[in-house]
Amino acid sequence: MPSDHSDGLLEWLGPILQGALVTLEIALLAYAIGLGLGLIGATARLSPWRPLRALGTAYSTLVRAIPELLLIILLYYAGSQALNALLAEFGGDTHIEISGFVTAVGVLAFVQGAYMTEVFRGAIQAIPKGQLEAADAYGFSRPARFYRIVLPGMLPNALPGMSNLWLILVKDTALISVIGFEELFFTAQQAAASTRDYALFYALAGALYLVMTLGSNALFARAERHVRRGQPST
Amino acid sequence: MDFSWLSDPFYQKALWTGFVNTLWLVAVSAVCGFALAVTFAMIRLRGPRPLAMLVTGLTTVVRGTPLLVQLLFFYDGVGRLLPEIPGLRESLIWPLLRDPFFYGALTFTLSVGAYTGEVLRGALLSVPEGELAAGRAFGLSRWQILYRLWLPRAIQMCLPTLTGELILLLKSVPLVSTIALMDLLKAANMVRDETFLVYEPLLLIAGIYLALTLVLTSVMRLIEHRFPGARPAAPKRRRLLPG
């Protein structure tokens, strides 16, 4: 028995680590896009223009009220159909199979953006009004005010939420396996099915996720110290 | 949009079963999970050191790995190893161990215990020491202090966070569609496979979840308002919990 186990493990270790790399790539890309979507969403939610505010609210409320797995399946179908329609519009008759990678990143980023919207909204609102007024008094343009005052001012408030969302995102990448995309957990499931060693490979996948989440926890703790430099410790 | 399949009693029954299973799973996991959370929090605060470290480790693993991986680890991994334990097949608990509902409830209970345990631990720590000292001065026993003072005050402080945790639990239920348990998503997948309608069944259950979230949030809001005593000022930096 023991030699059986180690044979299967050795054979599958490479593909599983490969899968872990894909998982990290998806998560990093989706996070970057999610940050952008979150900034746009927060700006929309705080906008003085009502329709834009309503749009931002609808985005963050709807996405956050529906289970992630359901959204991922729904957006997977809707997303690939929409993209194909778009390609058909511009590229004539070419029906391109959209890569699973693009859909996975897009879907996760869309969900991530909604949660990020709320984090950024709260963090921006927590910036003292006087700082913004001071920027206006110094004649800062709107973009300069955003980059020089709003962004660095909100980061200390937003970072705890951002780090939690990153952890949620890393764990949510496992949901992509349900739509058949080959990342860490999908590969682990294949390994488990072919060796019948379910407990071993699922525990291995779990351990790899744990390494990723604990590792990023340490990184975020450092980042938080950095953006809070010069602030009184709480 | 074609919703004509809704009149088929077969699909009606599947959706209803899925709906009932979803609510049951949330109810069982919320109640058992909360009991586990109180236990975890108390062990970490007052328990013997080795046990406290064990709970801390378990909490870290549960919070650091995907819930889907945990669910399949218990269902496919542990569940397949169980029949190899001699005598278990003949025992009274075997029917329970064959039921996929058991594995769903087990995974979610553990998850609620770990996440909510952390929330409760923080809340228990922020109950002013003087209130507990007052309890001791009145001659309350340790249990009485826990049940009458410490726990109610802690729950009062973190009730909004508990609401959030409950919604997270509700939203994790579709994961059980990956095991042999009929939930709303599995019912929708069945309709999708048989009628080739992609959006209608998925949008329908998205609507059901939306409604359930709204109902659950308003019910919890009602409870929050009913809780005696004014709500204390929100803590300065309330961390969103990783889910």
Textual characterization of the structure:
The complex is a heterodimer of chains A (234) and B (243). Chain A is globular. Chain A is built from 8 helices and no strands. Chain A is mainly α and 234 residues long. Chain A has helices spanning 2-45, 50-65, 68-91, 100-125, 129-137, 142-172, 184-195, 198-227. The model of chain A has no long low-confidence stretch (mean pLDDT 88). Chain B is mainly alpha-helical and 243 residues long. Chain B contains 9 helices and no strands. In chain B, helix 2 (49-64) crosses helix 5 (100-125), helix 5 (100-125) crosses helix 7 and helix 7 packs antiparallel against helix 9. Chain A binds chain B through residues 62, 65-71, 73-74, 77-78, 119, 157, 160-161, 164-165, 167-168, 171-175, 177-178, 185, 188-189, 192, 196, 198-200, 202-203, 205-206, 209-210, 213-214, 234, and chain B through 60-61, 63-70, 72-73, 76-78, 80-81, 170-175, 177-178, 185, 198-199, 202-203, 205-206, 209-210, 213-214, 236-237, 239-243.
Describe the secondary structure blueprint for this structure.
The complex is a heterodimer of chains A (234) and B (243).
Chain A: H1 2-45, H2 50-65, H3 68-91, H4 100-125, H5 129-137, H6 142-172, H7 184-195, H8 198-227
Helix pairs in contact in A: 1-2, 1-4, 1-7, 1-8, 2-4, 3-4, 4-6, 6-8, 7-8
Chain B: H1 9-46, H2 49-64, H3 67-81, H4 94-98, H5 100-125, H6 129-137, H7 142-172, H8 184-195, H9 199-226
Structural class of chain A: mainly alpha
Number of strands of chain A: 0
Largest sheet geometry of chain B: none
Work out the oligomeric state of the chains in this entry.
Answer: heterodimer
Which characteristics define this entry?
heterodimer, A: 234 residues, mainly alpha, MetI-like fold, 8 helices, 82% helix, 0% strand, globular, B: 243 residues
